[in-house]
Amino acid sequence: MIEILTPDELTRAKDTGALVGTILHTLKERAVVGVNLLDIDRWAQQMITDAGAESCYVDYAPSFGRGPFGHYICTAVNDAVLHGLPHDYALADGDLLTLDLAVTLHGISADAAISFIVGETQAPEDLALIETTERALAAAIAAVKPGARIGDLSRAIGTVLRQAGYPINMEFGGHGIGSTMHQDPHVANDGRPGRGYILRPGLLLALEPWVMADTAELVTDDDGWTLRSATGCRTAHTEHTIAVTETGAEILTLPR
To answer: What does the entry list as the binding residues for substrate (predicted)?
Structure first.
């Protein structure tokens, strides 16, 4: 299913996106050395509930997971990159943490992710991973305009990742979003320009470049959810929900 949102739905999408961005910004500030991943999950639950929103994750049970997910936010540490299941782990200095959050407010969903380093020890190679995903996301957003194709966005992402020397996994990527969290079209993190769905104003996309330092292969934890690099290398993941406008793209998941 591909949804094109009405002006009223787009207004609601902006509220949802701002909520997601604000929660992520708040959780990043709270995620200091010694904080437990389960505390982060509880804080996310409280902020979602206080806003009158609903989690997209608690009852999420896709074919690739051991569902339902049962938590309110994905917390991926170091070699974990996607679908990180919160568990009893206290953050340490130098940990590379990814928080991925999706909520629904007033019938419209938004999805975003941030990666950052906890504490004072910031390895240059970790900073490079994060910065590369941020640049790849910016490149994809810059390619958004009515009449562009999904392949143009995928190629923009893949070009940045490849030029930085990182392998690219094609199993998971960005996606359409609207009344539900995951919709068509799929936005792979590499692709051929001029191919795929033609972008139209009112389309929402969750664009999410992610990388692993030295492999494109994922392995799944025993929890049935958390995806890690097969080599144990560090990872990073950056995501925004954007709306296609008459002139380009509007980022919806920035904090207010």
So the answer is: 83, 182
Q: How far is CA 196 from CA 103, 160, 188, 247, in A?
A: 27, 20, 11, 20
Known binding-site residue numbers for a divalent metal cation: 100, 111, 175, 208, 239
* 72-121 tens-digit pLDDT: 999 999 999 999 999 999 999 999 999 999 999 999 999 999 999 999 99
pTM: 0.96
Binding residue numbers: 83, 100, 111, 175, 182, 208, 239
pLDDT tens, residue by residue, 198-256: 999 999 999 999 999 999 999 999 999 999 999 999 999 999 999 999 999 999 999 99
The alpha carbon dihedral of 210, 211, 216, 222 has a sign of negative
Measured in whole angstroms, the distance separating CA 44 from the mean position of its chain's CA atoms is 15
Q: Which CATH class is domain 7-251?
A: alpha beta
Question: Residue 238 in contact with residue 138, Cβ under 8 Å?
Answer: no
Q: Which amino acids are annotated as binding site for substrate, given as ranges?
A: 83, 182
The sign of the dihedral angle between the CA atoms of 162, 211, 237, 253 is: positive
